[in-house]
Amino acid sequence: MTHQRIRPFNTRDTYPEQDLENDLCQAVVTRGGATVYMRGQCPQSLEDAKNIESHDPIEQTHKVMQNIQQLIEEAGGTMNHLVKVVVYITDVRHREAIYRTMGEYIKGVHPCSTGLVVQALARPEWLVEIDATAVIPD
């Protein structure tokens, strides 16, 4: 079973003024399978919950997306099973860097995405948190 991606698009077309290239879609239809709801992933180790040392939005986003990928794989899936992300950022000026980095992990996947700019995350040094959902086919 493959997920049905409704109205896929790339952000280079919807946000031409920004240097983004994320493969997203308006909706994802899944049938059967196991749904994996992930806690909002932050720039910290899954092993010991220690923050990465960097305050760079790109490096923090790499860690967040690596955590998401690792959790999906531990559940028996691949990034192709990602269906939804909610991206929380603390500074709109980091948006392009964060989304460009996230785009490296979702190239060709086309999950649904919602992005929010928030005042703060649970720790002041965090610049990005991503909540993700995947559905692994039967």
Structural features, described:
The chain has helices spanning 11-14, 57-74, 95-106, and strands at 4-10, 23-29, 34-37, 82-89, 112-117, 128-136. The mean pLDDT is 94. The protein has a single domain (4-136), classed as RutC-like (60s Ribosomal Protein L30, Chain: A, 2-Layer Sandwich). It is built from three helices and six strands. The strands form two sheets. Strands 3-6-4-5 form a four-stranded mixed beta sheet, covered by helices on one side.
Structure characteristics:
4-stranded mixed β-sheet, 138 residues, 60s Ribosomal Protein L30, Chain: A, alpha+beta
- Which CATH-level-2 architecture? 2-Layer Sandwich
Number of helices: 3
Shape assignment: globular
> In percent, how much strand structure appears in the residues?
25-35%
Q: Count of DSSP E strands? A: 6
Unreliable sequence segments: none
The helix content is: 10-25%
The figure for the number of domains is 1
CATH top-level class: Alpha Beta
Radius of gyration from CA coordinates: 15 Å
Order of strands across the main sheet: 3-6-4-5
What kind of sheet is the major sheet? 4 strands, mixed
Relevant CATH superfamily? RutC-like
End-to-end separation in angstroms reads 8 Å
Mean pLDDT: 94
Q: CATH topology, anyone?
A: 60s Ribosomal Protein L30, Chain: A
